[in-house]
Specification:
YdjM-like; hydrolase; mainly alpha; about 260 residues; two-stranded antiparallel sheet
């Protein structure tokens, strides 16, 4: 899948899994965290491509993210290997759990600074990938990220929502690439060959269900268009109650 497609599927997955009215909802969050989480999950859905030097996330915060991309590519064994596996989901989720646990007490209140920093980074990446800002608007992307950091710090509903966002985003990315012809090395570092010639299990331990064909195909475009429509409709529906929720929180003071 292309980067914008991954981001769009991440946002749609979060909204589908967190809306109380959704038939597949397993996480129940207030409207403001549903919207913020949609953006962070869109960014998280690009994390797995951090093993590619030309990926959006690799250029999100140069030169730091570029150097990290080189290191991740080396550790992961190349593109669509370690970062596109069950092990990759576990590692990225564990890192987000550790980072989200960073809290700072101020004047008797506790702020989830770790959550805020992760939210800032992921939202900036998502805004760039989805072209939500003017072309070349890296500064604007990070300005939006700062807003997300503040919201992520004061809106945090416990310490679990950012790790959940990362886990969902990375998982959706891997599932999306598994729907293309190249597939993913799901069991990396193991690379088991199939016991016989199989359509969905390729030599070298690559698994696929190529319903979308090649990356960037018209089938991918059609699939993502449907998910984007769902996301837009859901976001419009959530915007008014989310605005009221944020206004009420700011009026009452940040929670401890």
């Amino acid at each position: 899948m292309m980067g914008p497609s991954h981001a769009a599927t991440g946002a749609a997955a979060w909204l589908a899994l967190t809306g109380p009215a959704s038939p597949i909802a397993s996480l129940h969050l207030p409207p403001e965290l549903q919207l913020l989480g949609a953006l962070t999950t869109a960014g998280a859905a690009l994390i797995s491509d951090w093993d590619h030097p030309r990926a959006t996330i690799a250029h999100a915060l140069p030169p730091v993210t570029e150097l990290m991309a080189r290191g991740i590519r080396r550790v992961a064994g190349g593109h669509r290997r370690g970062t596109h596996s069950l092990a990759g989901i576990a590692v990225f989720t564990a890192l987000s759990v550790a980072a989200a646990a960073i809290q700072v007490p101020v004047a008797g209140l506790t702020y989830g600074v770790g959550q805020g920093v992760i939210a800032a980074f992921l939202v900036a990446v998502a805004a760039t990938a989805l072209r939500l800002l003017p072309r070349g608007g890296r500064v604007s992307a990070w300005a939006l990220g700062v807003v997300a950091a503040v919201l992520g710090t004061v809106l945090g509903d416990g310490l679990w929502w950012i790790p959940a966002s990362v886990a969902i985003g990375v998982t959706v990315h891997i599932l999306g690439d598994a729907l293309t012809n190249n597939g993913v090395a799901l069991l990396w570092p193991l690379r088991p060959d199939p016991p016989c010639r199989l359509w969905c299990w390729q030599p070298g331990g690559r698994f696929r269900l190529p319903l979308l064909g090649t990356t960037g195909s018209w089938r991918e475009w059609a699939f993502v268009s449907v998910l984007t429509a769902f996301t837009v409709v859901r976001a419009v529906h959530l915007a008014p109650p989310a605005a009221r929720g944020v206004a009420g929180l700011l009026g009452a003071g940040a929670p401890s």
